[in-house]
Amino acid sequence: MNPDAATIAAGAPIEVDLTPIAEGQDIKVFWRGKPIYISHRTKKQIEEAQNVQLSSLPDPQPDSARVKAGHDQWLVVIGICTHLGCIPIAHEGNYDGFFCPCHGSQYDSSGRIRQGPAPANLAVPPYTFVSDTKIQIG
Known about the structure:
The chain is mostly beta strands. It has helices at residues 5-9, 43-50, and strands at 14-17, 26-31, 34-40, 74-78, 89-92, 97-100, 105-107, 113-115, 127-131, 134-137. Helix content is 9%, strand content 33%. The strands form three sheets. Strands 5-6-7-8 form a four-stranded antiparallel beta sheet, with no helix packed on it. The protein is globular, with a radius of gyration of 15 Å. The relative contact order is 0.21.
């Protein structure tokens, strides 16, 4: 017995199977009517995100605060630009992260704002790992 679409739209937690997401790939799911990007980051993306000088970031936050311990390869963010609420595009821009074509905001592979008018990082929704291959959002 699964909740109906109206219950899910109102904010019921959703489960997402991570198994089919290849390394370097992103998928988009919807939770509470918001787009959620789930990124299976490559080793290169993880290293780049961890090695960023925090003082160079407009909204300083270490990569470790944006992912779950032991699951560095998975980034889960709300795909709404913090500038004016547009939907950024994954794997675009100068930082191998997200690019908002509306006004040029660029986020890195940790969803942190790197350039453009957006004032803050992409938000991380509440989520937990149910198993190594499944997360629950909400």
